[in-house]
Amino acid sequence: MDEVTLEMIKMLKTRTDIAREIGDVKKNIGKAITDESREDNLREKVVALSKEINLDEEIATKFFNFLLNESIKVQSTNKQTHLSIFLKAKSLEQQGKKIIHMEVGEPDFLPPPIVKEALGEVYDKGFVKYGQAKGIPIFRETLAKYISEKFNVTNVTSENIIVSPGARFSIFTAITALLNPGDEIIVIEPAWPAYKDCALNSGIKIRTINTTLEDNWEPSIEKIRKMINSNTKMIVLNYPNNPTGKILPEKLQDEIVEVAKENDLYILSDEIYSEYKKTKWKSILCYNYEKSIVTQSFSKSHAMTGFRIGYAITDHVIVEKMAKLQALCLTNVSEPIQYTAMKALEADTSNNTNTVEDRLKILIKEAEEIGLDFVVPDGAMYLFARVNKEGFDGVEFANNTLDRGLAIAPGEGFGNYKDHIRISACQDEKTLTEGMNILREILSE
Ligand code: PMP
Protein backbone atom coordinates (compact mmCIF):
# COMPACT_ATOMS: atom_id res chain seq x y z
CA MET A 1 0.00 0.00 0.00
CA ASP A 2 2.80 2.42 0.93
CA GLU A 3 4.56 1.78 -2.34
CA VAL A 4 1.45 2.41 -4.46
CA THR A 5 0.65 5.61 -2.54
CA LEU A 6 4.19 6.95 -2.89
CA GLU A 7 4.18 6.07 -6.59
CA MET A 8 0.96 8.08 -6.99
CA ILE A 9 2.54 11.06 -5.22
CA LYS A 10 5.53 10.93 -7.61
CA MET A 11 3.17 10.82 -10.58
CA LEU A 12 1.24 13.75 -9.17
CA LYS A 13 4.51 15.69 -9.08
CA THR A 14 5.19 14.83 -12.74
CA ARG A 15 1.63 15.80 -13.71
CA THR A 16 1.81 19.11 -11.83
CA ASP A 17 5.13 20.00 -13.51
CA ILE A 18 3.66 19.29 -16.94
CA ALA A 19 0.54 21.32 -16.08
CA ARG A 20 2.74 24.27 -15.08
CA GLU A 21 4.66 24.10 -18.38
CA ILE A 22 1.42 23.90 -20.38
CA GLY A 23 0.16 26.87 -18.35
CA ASP A 24 3.18 28.95 -19.46
CA VAL A 25 2.56 28.04 -23.10
CA LYS A 26 -1.15 28.92 -22.82
CA LYS A 27 -0.26 32.26 -21.27
CA ASN A 28 2.25 33.07 -24.01
CA ILE A 29 -0.17 32.33 -26.82
CA GLY A 30 -3.11 33.95 -24.99
CA LYS A 31 -5.11 30.71 -24.67
CA ALA A 32 -7.70 30.16 -21.92
CA ILE A 33 -6.80 27.83 -19.04
CA THR A 34 -9.78 25.51 -19.40
CA ASP A 35 -10.25 23.65 -22.64
CA GLU A 36 -13.59 21.83 -22.32
CA SER A 37 -13.21 19.70 -25.45
CA ARG A 38 -9.69 18.59 -24.46
CA GLU A 39 -10.99 17.71 -20.99
CA ASP A 40 -13.96 15.85 -22.47
CA ASN A 41 -11.62 13.81 -24.58
CA LEU A 42 -9.57 12.76 -21.59
CA ARG A 43 -12.71 12.19 -19.50
CA GLU A 44 -13.92 9.68 -22.09
CA LYS A 45 -10.62 7.83 -21.83
CA VAL A 46 -10.86 7.81 -18.02
CA VAL A 47 -14.39 6.38 -18.20
CA ALA A 48 -13.34 3.75 -20.74
CA LEU A 49 -10.35 2.72 -18.64
CA SER A 50 -12.36 2.48 -15.43
CA LYS A 51 -14.80 0.17 -17.23
CA GLU A 52 -11.95 -1.93 -18.56
CA ILE A 53 -10.26 -2.34 -15.17
CA ASN A 54 -13.53 -2.60 -13.28
CA LEU A 55 -13.12 0.54 -11.18
CA ASP A 56 -16.16 2.51 -10.00
CA GLU A 57 -16.60 5.17 -12.71
CA GLU A 58 -17.82 7.81 -10.25
CA ILE A 59 -14.71 7.49 -8.09
CA ALA A 60 -12.47 7.52 -11.16
CA THR A 61 -14.04 10.70 -12.54
CA LYS A 62 -14.01 12.39 -9.12
CA PHE A 63 -10.29 11.70 -8.90
CA PHE A 64 -9.95 12.96 -12.46
CA ASN A 65 -11.78 16.16 -11.48
CA PHE A 66 -9.39 16.61 -8.58
CA LEU A 67 -6.45 16.40 -11.01
CA LEU A 68 -8.06 18.86 -13.42
CA ASN A 69 -8.65 21.35 -10.60
CA GLU A 70 -5.04 21.05 -9.49
CA SER A 71 -3.98 21.94 -13.05
CA ILE A 72 -6.29 24.96 -13.02
CA LYS A 73 -4.76 26.09 -9.73
CA VAL A 74 -1.16 25.91 -10.98
CA GLN A 75 -2.09 27.56 -14.26
CA SER A 76 -4.12 30.39 -12.73
CA THR A 77 -2.14 33.57 -12.77
CA ASN A 78 -3.42 36.75 -11.27
CA LYS A 79 -6.30 37.32 -13.64
CA GLN A 80 -7.47 40.93 -13.74
CA THR A 81 -11.14 41.35 -13.02
CA HIS A 82 -13.42 44.29 -12.34
CA LEU A 83 -12.36 44.02 -8.69
CA SER A 84 -8.65 44.34 -9.39
CA ILE A 85 -9.30 47.35 -11.62
CA PHE A 86 -11.50 48.82 -8.87
CA LEU A 87 -8.73 48.41 -6.28
CA LYS A 88 -6.18 49.95 -8.63
CA ALA A 89 -8.56 52.84 -9.33
CA LYS A 90 -9.02 53.39 -5.58
CA SER A 91 -5.28 53.60 -4.98
CA LEU A 92 -4.91 56.08 -7.89
CA GLU A 93 -7.65 58.17 -6.26
CA GLN A 94 -5.72 58.17 -3.02
CA GLN A 95 -2.82 59.65 -4.96
CA GLY A 96 -5.16 62.48 -5.99
CA LYS A 97 -6.15 61.27 -9.50
CA LYS A 98 -9.76 61.73 -10.64
CA ILE A 99 -11.29 58.43 -11.76
CA ILE A 100 -14.68 57.79 -13.37
CA HIS A 101 -15.94 54.49 -11.98
CA MET A 102 -17.61 52.47 -14.71
CA GLU A 103 -16.07 49.17 -13.61
CA VAL A 104 -18.15 48.19 -10.58
CA GLY A 105 -21.83 47.56 -10.12
CA GLU A 106 -22.28 49.95 -7.24
CA PRO A 107 -25.13 52.46 -7.57
CA ASP A 108 -24.00 56.01 -6.84
CA PHE A 109 -27.29 56.88 -5.15
CA LEU A 110 -27.95 56.49 -1.42
CA PRO A 111 -30.10 53.87 0.32
CA PRO A 112 -33.74 54.91 0.94
CA PRO A 113 -34.07 57.56 3.74
CA ILE A 114 -35.96 55.08 5.97
CA VAL A 115 -32.61 53.30 6.37
CA LYS A 116 -31.17 56.34 8.17
CA GLU A 117 -34.12 56.36 10.55
CA ALA A 118 -33.85 52.62 11.15
CA LEU A 119 -30.17 52.87 12.04
CA GLY A 120 -31.13 55.33 14.77
CA GLU A 121 -33.80 52.99 16.14
CA VAL A 122 -31.62 49.91 16.48
CA TYR A 123 -30.22 50.77 19.90
CA ASP A 124 -33.58 51.33 21.61
CA LYS A 125 -35.22 48.36 19.92
CA GLY A 126 -32.49 46.13 21.30
CA PHE A 127 -31.22 44.59 18.07
CA VAL A 128 -27.72 44.51 19.46
CA LYS A 129 -27.05 40.89 20.45
CA TYR A 130 -26.07 37.52 19.09
CA GLY A 131 -28.91 35.85 17.21
CA GLN A 132 -29.93 32.85 15.15
CA ALA A 133 -27.62 31.88 12.29
CA LYS A 134 -30.55 31.86 9.86
CA GLY A 135 -31.51 35.44 10.71
CA ILE A 136 -33.85 37.35 13.04
CA PRO A 137 -37.24 35.52 12.99
CA ILE A 138 -39.31 38.66 12.35
CA PHE A 139 -37.02 39.65 9.47
CA ARG A 140 -37.32 36.18 7.92
CA GLU A 141 -41.10 36.37 8.25
CA THR A 142 -41.16 39.83 6.68
CA LEU A 143 -38.95 38.63 3.82
CA ALA A 144 -41.19 35.60 3.22
CA LYS A 145 -44.24 37.88 2.93
CA TYR A 146 -42.36 40.34 0.73
CA ILE A 147 -41.16 37.60 -1.63
CA SER A 148 -44.57 35.92 -1.78
CA GLU A 149 -46.23 39.15 -2.83
CA LYS A 150 -43.51 40.30 -5.17
CA PHE A 151 -43.14 37.04 -7.09
CA ASN A 152 -46.68 35.86 -6.63
CA VAL A 153 -45.68 32.57 -5.02
CA THR A 154 -47.60 30.77 -2.30
CA ASN A 155 -45.13 28.31 -0.86
CA VAL A 156 -42.50 30.59 0.75
CA THR A 157 -42.50 30.81 4.56
CA SER A 158 -39.84 32.07 6.99
CA GLU A 159 -38.51 28.49 7.14
CA ASN A 160 -37.41 28.92 3.53
CA ILE A 161 -35.29 32.00 4.19
CA ILE A 162 -31.69 32.37 5.31
CA VAL A 163 -30.31 35.87 5.79
CA SER A 164 -26.67 36.33 4.77
CA PRO A 165 -24.05 39.09 4.71
CA GLY A 166 -24.65 39.80 1.01
CA ALA A 167 -25.76 37.43 -1.73
CA ARG A 168 -22.10 36.53 -2.19
CA PHE A 169 -22.12 34.68 1.11
CA SER A 170 -25.34 32.81 0.28
CA ILE A 171 -23.67 31.69 -2.93
CA PHE A 172 -20.61 30.56 -0.98
CA THR A 173 -22.65 28.63 1.59
CA ALA A 174 -24.92 27.05 -1.04
CA ILE A 175 -22.00 25.78 -3.13
CA THR A 176 -19.85 24.78 -0.17
CA ALA A 177 -22.55 23.15 1.97
CA LEU A 178 -24.35 21.27 -0.80
CA LEU A 179 -21.53 20.00 -3.00
CA ASN A 180 -18.55 17.77 -2.31
CA PRO A 181 -15.03 17.71 -3.74
CA GLY A 182 -15.07 16.06 -7.17
CA ASP A 183 -18.71 17.00 -7.82
CA GLU A 184 -19.39 19.11 -10.91
CA ILE A 185 -21.13 22.47 -11.25
CA ILE A 186 -22.29 23.96 -14.55
CA VAL A 187 -21.66 27.67 -15.02
CA ILE A 188 -22.93 29.53 -18.07
CA GLU A 189 -20.42 32.14 -19.21
CA PRO A 190 -19.96 35.06 -19.29
CA ALA A 191 -20.53 34.94 -15.54
CA TRP A 192 -19.79 36.85 -12.37
CA PRO A 193 -16.50 35.21 -11.29
CA ALA A 194 -17.44 34.23 -7.72
CA TYR A 195 -19.43 31.11 -8.72
CA LYS A 196 -16.30 29.56 -10.19
CA ASP A 197 -14.04 30.86 -7.44
CA CYS A 198 -16.29 29.37 -4.71
CA ALA A 199 -16.41 26.03 -6.51
CA LEU A 200 -12.67 25.87 -7.09
CA ASN A 201 -12.08 26.77 -3.45
CA SER A 202 -14.07 23.69 -2.41
CA GLY A 203 -12.52 21.26 -4.89
CA ILE A 204 -15.62 21.24 -7.10
CA LYS A 205 -15.12 20.85 -10.84
CA ILE A 206 -16.45 23.72 -12.92
CA ARG A 207 -17.94 22.87 -16.31
CA THR A 208 -18.43 25.96 -18.42
CA ILE A 209 -20.98 26.54 -21.13
CA ASN A 210 -19.71 29.36 -23.28
CA THR A 211 -22.32 31.63 -24.79
CA THR A 212 -21.64 34.22 -27.47
CA LEU A 213 -22.90 37.56 -28.63
CA GLU A 214 -23.88 35.92 -31.93
CA ASP A 215 -26.09 33.44 -30.04
CA ASN A 216 -27.68 36.31 -28.17
CA TRP A 217 -26.02 35.00 -24.97
CA GLU A 218 -28.37 32.00 -24.98
CA PRO A 219 -26.93 28.64 -23.86
CA SER A 220 -27.61 25.57 -25.97
CA ILE A 221 -29.86 23.14 -24.13
CA GLU A 222 -28.19 20.29 -26.00
CA LYS A 223 -24.77 21.34 -24.73
CA ILE A 224 -26.11 21.41 -21.17
CA ARG A 225 -27.66 17.96 -21.58
CA LYS A 226 -24.43 16.54 -22.99
CA MET A 227 -22.35 17.95 -20.17
CA ILE A 228 -24.32 16.24 -17.39
CA ASN A 229 -22.90 13.05 -15.86
CA SER A 230 -23.24 11.24 -12.54
CA ASN A 231 -20.99 13.81 -10.82
CA THR A 232 -22.99 16.84 -11.98
CA LYS A 233 -24.81 18.28 -8.98
CA MET A 234 -25.64 21.92 -9.66
CA ILE A 235 -26.30 24.45 -12.41
CA VAL A 236 -25.93 28.18 -11.81
CA LEU A 237 -28.31 30.65 -13.44
CA ASN A 238 -28.01 34.43 -13.18
CA TYR A 239 -30.73 36.37 -14.98
CA PRO A 240 -30.89 39.33 -15.41
CA ASN A 241 -27.25 38.59 -16.01
CA ASN A 242 -24.06 40.22 -14.90
CA PRO A 243 -22.29 41.14 -17.21
CA THR A 244 -24.59 40.85 -20.28
CA GLY A 245 -27.93 42.05 -18.86
CA LYS A 246 -29.51 39.07 -20.62
CA ILE A 247 -32.85 37.58 -19.54
CA LEU A 248 -33.48 34.11 -20.99
CA PRO A 249 -36.55 33.53 -23.15
CA GLU A 250 -39.10 31.79 -20.92
CA LYS A 251 -39.16 28.63 -23.05
CA LEU A 252 -35.40 28.17 -22.81
CA GLN A 253 -35.48 28.78 -19.05
CA ASP A 254 -38.32 26.22 -18.73
CA GLU A 255 -36.21 23.70 -20.63
CA ILE A 256 -33.16 24.27 -18.43
CA VAL A 257 -35.27 23.80 -15.29
CA GLU A 258 -36.72 20.62 -16.81
CA VAL A 259 -33.24 19.23 -17.53
CA ALA A 260 -32.15 20.10 -13.99
CA LYS A 261 -35.19 18.29 -12.56
CA GLU A 262 -34.66 15.24 -14.75
CA ASN A 263 -31.08 14.99 -13.51
CA ASP A 264 -31.78 15.88 -9.89
CA LEU A 265 -29.51 18.94 -10.03
CA TYR A 266 -29.59 21.87 -7.67
CA ILE A 267 -30.40 25.14 -9.42
CA LEU A 268 -28.56 28.06 -7.89
CA SER A 269 -30.39 31.06 -9.29
CA ASP A 270 -28.74 34.38 -8.49
CA GLU A 271 -31.54 36.90 -8.94
CA ILE A 272 -30.02 40.00 -7.36
CA TYR A 273 -30.71 42.11 -10.46
CA SER A 274 -34.41 41.22 -10.63
CA GLU A 275 -35.43 44.78 -9.68
CA TYR A 276 -33.56 46.00 -12.75
CA LYS A 277 -35.43 43.93 -15.32
CA LYS A 278 -36.54 45.77 -18.44
CA THR A 279 -38.28 42.88 -20.19
CA LYS A 280 -40.38 39.90 -19.07
CA TRP A 281 -38.62 37.85 -16.42
CA LYS A 282 -39.66 34.83 -14.36
CA SER A 283 -38.11 33.93 -11.00
CA ILE A 284 -36.94 30.35 -10.53
CA LEU A 285 -39.17 30.37 -7.43
CA CYS A 286 -42.16 30.13 -9.77
CA TYR A 287 -41.14 26.57 -10.73
CA ASN A 288 -41.62 25.34 -7.17
CA TYR A 289 -38.55 23.10 -7.46
CA GLU A 290 -37.34 21.90 -4.05
CA LYS A 291 -33.71 21.79 -5.18
CA SER A 292 -33.58 25.45 -6.20
CA ILE A 293 -31.73 28.09 -4.21
CA VAL A 294 -32.56 31.67 -5.15
CA THR A 295 -30.26 34.45 -3.96
CA GLN A 296 -31.32 38.04 -3.41
CA SER A 297 -29.61 41.11 -2.06
CA PHE A 298 -30.17 44.65 -0.80
CA SER A 299 -26.95 45.75 -2.53
CA LYS A 300 -28.38 46.70 -5.90
CA SER A 301 -32.15 47.07 -5.34
CA HIS A 302 -31.74 49.31 -2.28
CA ALA A 303 -28.25 50.67 -3.03
CA MET A 304 -27.03 49.10 0.23
CA THR A 305 -23.76 47.53 -0.97
CA GLY A 306 -21.81 48.58 2.13
CA PHE A 307 -24.39 47.12 4.53
CA ARG A 308 -23.50 43.62 3.33
CA ILE A 309 -26.95 42.12 3.48
CA GLY A 310 -28.73 39.60 1.31
CA TYR A 311 -30.64 36.34 1.62
CA ALA A 312 -31.44 33.02 0.01
CA ILE A 313 -34.83 31.39 -0.54
CA THR A 314 -34.81 27.61 -0.65
CA ASP A 315 -36.14 24.38 0.83
CA HIS A 316 -36.02 24.30 4.65
CA VAL A 317 -33.65 21.32 4.67
CA ILE A 318 -31.21 23.27 2.49
CA VAL A 319 -31.63 26.31 4.76
CA GLU A 320 -30.50 24.14 7.69
CA LYS A 321 -27.41 22.93 5.79
CA MET A 322 -26.44 26.45 4.78
CA ALA A 323 -27.14 27.76 8.31
CA LYS A 324 -24.76 25.20 9.80
CA LEU A 325 -21.90 26.51 7.67
CA GLN A 326 -22.94 30.12 8.25
CA ALA A 327 -22.94 29.61 12.05
CA LEU A 328 -19.46 28.15 11.76
CA CYS A 329 -18.19 31.12 9.76
CA LEU A 330 -19.83 34.10 11.41
CA THR A 331 -22.29 33.08 14.17
CA ASN A 332 -24.99 35.37 12.76
CA VAL A 333 -25.44 38.36 10.48
CA SER A 334 -25.17 41.67 12.35
CA GLU A 335 -28.53 42.35 14.07
CA PRO A 336 -28.53 46.13 13.53
CA ILE A 337 -28.02 45.59 9.80
CA GLN A 338 -30.79 42.99 9.64
CA TYR A 339 -33.23 45.34 11.36
CA THR A 340 -32.25 48.17 9.03
CA ALA A 341 -32.74 45.99 5.94
CA MET A 342 -36.14 44.89 7.25
CA LYS A 343 -37.20 48.54 7.43
CA ALA A 344 -35.73 49.20 3.97
CA LEU A 345 -38.31 46.77 2.56
CA GLU A 346 -40.96 49.42 3.27
CA ALA A 347 -39.34 51.86 0.84
CA ASP A 348 -40.45 52.36 -2.74
CA THR A 349 -37.33 51.81 -4.86
CA SER A 350 -38.90 52.20 -8.29
CA ASN A 351 -36.90 55.39 -8.77
CA ASN A 352 -33.67 53.38 -8.62
CA THR A 353 -34.97 51.09 -11.34
CA ASN A 354 -35.95 54.01 -13.59
CA THR A 355 -32.65 55.81 -12.99
CA VAL A 356 -30.57 52.79 -14.01
CA GLU A 357 -32.76 52.15 -17.03
CA ASP A 358 -32.27 55.75 -18.22
CA ARG A 359 -28.53 55.48 -17.73
CA LEU A 360 -28.36 52.23 -19.65
CA LYS A 361 -30.10 54.02 -22.53
CA ILE A 362 -27.30 56.59 -22.55
CA LEU A 363 -24.63 53.89 -22.57
CA ILE A 364 -26.41 52.07 -25.40
CA LYS A 365 -26.64 55.23 -27.51
CA GLU A 366 -23.00 56.16 -26.96
CA ALA A 367 -21.78 52.59 -27.55
CA GLU A 368 -23.72 52.42 -30.82
CA GLU A 369 -22.11 55.66 -31.96
CA ILE A 370 -18.65 54.39 -31.07
CA GLY A 371 -19.37 51.21 -33.03
CA LEU A 372 -19.12 48.66 -30.22
CA ASP A 373 -20.81 45.28 -30.75
CA PHE A 374 -23.32 44.25 -28.12
CA VAL A 375 -26.72 42.76 -27.45
CA VAL A 376 -29.05 45.37 -25.94
CA PRO A 377 -29.38 44.34 -22.27
CA ASP A 378 -32.79 43.12 -21.01
CA GLY A 379 -31.93 44.33 -17.52
CA ALA A 380 -29.24 44.66 -14.82
CA MET A 381 -26.88 47.66 -14.90
CA TYR A 382 -24.20 46.83 -17.44
CA LEU A 383 -23.29 46.85 -21.09
CA PHE A 384 -21.08 43.97 -22.18
CA ALA A 385 -19.54 44.97 -25.48
CA ARG A 386 -17.05 43.58 -27.96
CA VAL A 387 -14.38 45.84 -29.37
CA ASN A 388 -13.69 45.03 -32.99
CA LYS A 389 -10.02 45.80 -33.16
CA GLU A 390 -7.32 43.39 -34.28
CA GLY A 391 -5.60 41.81 -31.24
CA PHE A 392 -7.73 43.76 -28.74
CA ASP A 393 -6.92 42.80 -25.16
CA GLY A 394 -9.47 43.96 -22.57
CA VAL A 395 -7.02 43.82 -19.65
CA GLU A 396 -4.43 45.95 -21.43
CA PHE A 397 -7.18 48.30 -22.55
CA ALA A 398 -8.69 48.65 -19.05
CA ASN A 399 -5.24 49.56 -17.71
CA ASN A 400 -4.85 52.16 -20.48
CA THR A 401 -8.24 53.75 -19.83
CA LEU A 402 -7.41 53.84 -16.11
CA ASP A 403 -4.33 55.93 -16.89
CA ARG A 404 -6.69 58.35 -18.64
CA GLY A 405 -9.09 58.50 -15.67
CA LEU A 406 -11.68 55.89 -16.66
CA ALA A 407 -12.15 52.56 -14.90
CA ILE A 408 -13.92 49.81 -16.90
CA ALA A 409 -14.00 46.03 -16.41
CA PRO A 410 -12.07 43.72 -18.75
CA GLY A 411 -14.18 40.93 -20.28
CA GLU A 412 -11.68 38.29 -19.20
CA GLY A 413 -12.93 38.50 -15.61
CA PHE A 414 -16.20 36.91 -16.80
CA GLY A 415 -14.76 34.04 -18.84
CA ASN A 416 -12.96 33.66 -22.13
CA TYR A 417 -13.92 37.14 -23.42
CA LYS A 418 -10.61 38.90 -24.00
CA ASP A 419 -12.09 41.17 -26.68
CA HIS A 420 -14.98 42.35 -24.50
CA ILE A 421 -15.37 45.04 -21.87
CA ARG A 422 -18.08 45.62 -19.30
CA ILE A 423 -19.30 49.15 -18.73
CA SER A 424 -21.45 49.92 -15.66
CA ALA A 425 -24.38 52.33 -15.67
CA CYS A 426 -23.86 53.37 -12.05
CA GLN A 427 -22.94 57.05 -12.47
CA ASP A 428 -25.00 60.12 -13.33
CA GLU A 429 -25.64 60.98 -16.98
CA LYS A 430 -22.94 63.63 -17.21
CA THR A 431 -20.26 61.35 -15.77
CA LEU A 432 -21.30 58.46 -18.01
CA THR A 433 -21.07 60.67 -21.09
CA GLU A 434 -17.67 61.92 -19.95
CA GLY A 435 -16.52 58.31 -19.47
CA MET A 436 -17.79 57.25 -22.89
CA ASN A 437 -15.97 60.20 -24.45
CA ILE A 438 -12.67 58.98 -22.96
CA LEU A 439 -13.46 55.52 -24.36
CA ARG A 440 -14.22 56.96 -27.79
CA GLU A 441 -10.96 58.97 -27.79
CA ILE A 442 -8.78 55.99 -26.88
CA LEU A 443 -10.48 53.71 -29.39
CA SER A 444 -9.99 56.19 -32.20
CA GLU A 445 -6.24 56.53 -31.56
N1 PMP B 1 -24.27 38.20 -7.73
C1 PMP B 1 -23.95 38.97 -8.77
C2 PMP B 1 -24.33 38.54 -10.14
C3 PMP B 1 -23.24 40.17 -8.57
O1 PMP B 1 -22.94 40.94 -9.61
C4 PMP B 1 -22.89 40.55 -7.25
C5 PMP B 1 -22.13 41.80 -6.91
N2 PMP B 1 -21.69 42.56 -7.91
C6 PMP B 1 -23.26 39.69 -6.20
C7 PMP B 1 -23.95 38.54 -6.47
C8 PMP B 1 -22.90 40.02 -4.78
O2 PMP B 1 -23.84 40.81 -4.18
P1 PMP B 1 -23.78 41.19 -2.63
O3 PMP B 1 -23.29 42.59 -2.55
O4 PMP B 1 -25.18 41.03 -2.15
O5 PMP B 1 -22.86 40.22 -1.97
In short:
The chain has 445 residues and is an alpha/beta fold. It has 15 helices and 12 strands. It has helices spanning 2-29, 36-52, 57-75, 82-94, 114-125, 137-151, 167-178, 194-201, 221-227, 250-262, 316-330, 335-344, 350-370, 394-403, 429-444, and strands at residues 100-102, 161-164, 184-189, 205-210, 232-237, 266-270, 292-297, 310-314, 373-374, 382-386, 406-410, 420-424.
Name the descriptors.
binds 4'-deoxy-4'-aminopyridoxal-5'-phosphate, Aspartate Aminotransferase, domain 2, 7-stranded mixed β-sheet, 3 domains, Chorismate Mutase Domain, subunit A, 5-stranded mixed β-sheet, 445 residues, alpha/beta, 13% strand, Aspartate Aminotransferase, domain 1, 12 strands
Structure description:
The protein has 445 residues and is α/β, with parallel strands linked by helices. It folds into 3 domains: 2-75, Chorismate mutase (Chorismate Mutase Domain, subunit A); 82-109 and 350-444, Aspartate Aminotransferase, domain 1 (Alpha-Beta Complex); 129-344, 3-Layer(aba) Sandwich (Aspartate Aminotransferase, domain 2). It is built from 15 helices and 12 strands. The strands form 2 sheets. The protein has a 7-stranded mixed sheet, sandwiched between helices. The protein has a 5-stranded mixed sheet with strand order 1-11-12-10-9. Helix 2 packs antiparallel against helix 3. The longest helix is centred in the first third of the chain and has 28 residues, at 2-29. The radius of gyration is 23 Å and the shape is globular. The mean pLDDT is 95. The structure holds 4'-deoxy-4'-aminopyridoxal-5'-phosphate. 4'-deoxy-4'-aminopyridoxal-5'-phosphate is lined by residues 105, 166-168, 192, 238, 242, 270, 272, 297, 299, 305, 310.
